[in-house]
Specification:
This protein has an eight-stranded parallel β-barrel, surrounded by five helices. It is 43% helix and 15% strand. It is of the alpha/beta class. Helix 11 links the parallel strand 7 (206-210) and strand 8. The protein binds 2-phosphoglycolic acid.
C-alpha cells in the first residue's frame, strides 16, 4: 500500500529566516492528512526547518549529496553529514543538476547508493527533454535512465527509493504534461521497475510526477493510478499554495 507523498523542492530559494517564516505559516495550516508532506530545502536551511517542524509528521530532506563519505572535495556535502542532520530524503539527478552540473546516470546511481547506505531515501529524478519528446524517444530515454540509476541497487533498497518523473519541458515553464501523458510515463517506469525487481517490490515504490504542479492541476494528476505524489517546485515556495496542493 503506497502512501501518497507530496514534496516541495525549494531549489535555491529561501534563507534560514525565510525558511522559518514559511514553516511557521505552514505548521499553522498543517493538520496532518493521509498524504505525507516533504520539504526538500537548501543545505543551509535544513537545521532550521528540522527545528521548526519538530513534533509534526512533516518530512524534511536535502536536494543534493556527494557520493564519497569524506575527503578533499571542497564544497561538497556527504551522506553521513546529511544523516547527522536526521533528514529523511534527498533528491538525486534533478534535471537542473544533470543539465547545469553535468550529472550523469552513473553519478546519480552512486549518489543514490551513498544515501541508501546511510538510511536516507533517494528521490531519483528522471525525464526527457522537449527535443527527445518531439522525436518520440521519451520511453527509451526514461527506461534507460531507470535502469542506469537503479543499477546494482538491491531490492531491499530499491523499495525505499522514490522516483520522480519530471519531463524537462514542463519544469518551471507553466506547461504541465497532461495527466494522461504523466500517467503513461509513470506506468512505463513501474513496468521497468517490475522487470528489474518483480511485481511485489515495484509495487511498493512511490512514483511522483513533477513539472508545473499547482493547486489547479494536482487533482487530475493524482487521479492517475500509477502516480503516487508530486514533486513541486515553484508552487512549494508559498505555504498557502503548497498546502492547497497537499489538501487537493
Ligand atoms: P516546477 O519545478 O514545479 O517549478 O515546475 C518542479 C521541479 O523542478 O522539481
Amino acid at each position: 500500500m503506497r502512501i501518497p507523498l507530496i514534496a516541495g523542492n525549494w531549489k535555491m530559494y529561501k534563507t534560514p529566516d525565510e525558511a522559518e517564516e514559511f514553516c511557521k505559516k505552514f505548521a499553522e495550516l498543517y493538520h496532518g492528512t493521509d498524504i505525507r508532506a516533504l520539504l526538500l530545502v537548501p543545505f543551509t536551511s535544513i537545521a532550521t526547518v528540522k527545528r521548526c517542524t519538530e513534533g509534526t509528521d512533516i518530512l524534511v530532506g536535502a536536494q543534493n549529496v556527494y557520493f564519497e563519505k569524506e575527503g578533499a572535495y571542497t564544497g561538497e556535502i556527504s551522506a553521513p553529514m546529511l544523516k547527522a542532520l536526521a533528514i529523511d530524503y534527498c533528491i538525486v539527478g534533478h534535471s537542473e543538476r544533470r543539465g547545469y552540473f553535468g550529472e550523469t546516470d552513473d553519478i546519480v546511481n552512486r549518489k543514490a547508493k551513498a544515501l541508501l547506505e546511510e538510511g536516507i531515501r533517494p528521490v531519483i529524478c528522471v525525464g526527457e527533454s522537449l527535443e527527445i519528446r518531439e522525436a518520440g524517444g521519451q520511453n527509451t530515454h526514461v527506461s534507460s535512465q531507470i535502469r542506469a540509476d537503479f543499477q546494482g541497487i538491491p531490492e531491499e533498497d530499491a523499495v525505499k527509493c522514490v522516483v520522480a518523473y519530471e519531463p524537462i519541458w514542463a519544469i518551471g515553464t507553466g506547461r504541465t504534461a497532461t495527466p494522461l501523458q504523466a500517467g503513461e510515463m509513470c506506468s512505463l517506469i513501474r513496468e521497468e521497475l517490475i522487470s528489474m525487481y518483480g511485481e511485489d517490490a515495484a509495487d511498493e515504490i512511490i512514483i511522483q510526477y513533477g513539472g508545473s504542479v499547482k493547486p489547479e492541476n494536482i487533482t487530475d494528476i493524482m487521479d492517475m493510478p500509477e502516480i503516487d505524489g508530486a514533486l513541486v517546485g515553484g508552487a512549494s515556495l508559498d505555504p498557502v499554495k503548497f498546502m492547497d496542493i497537499i489538501n487537493f
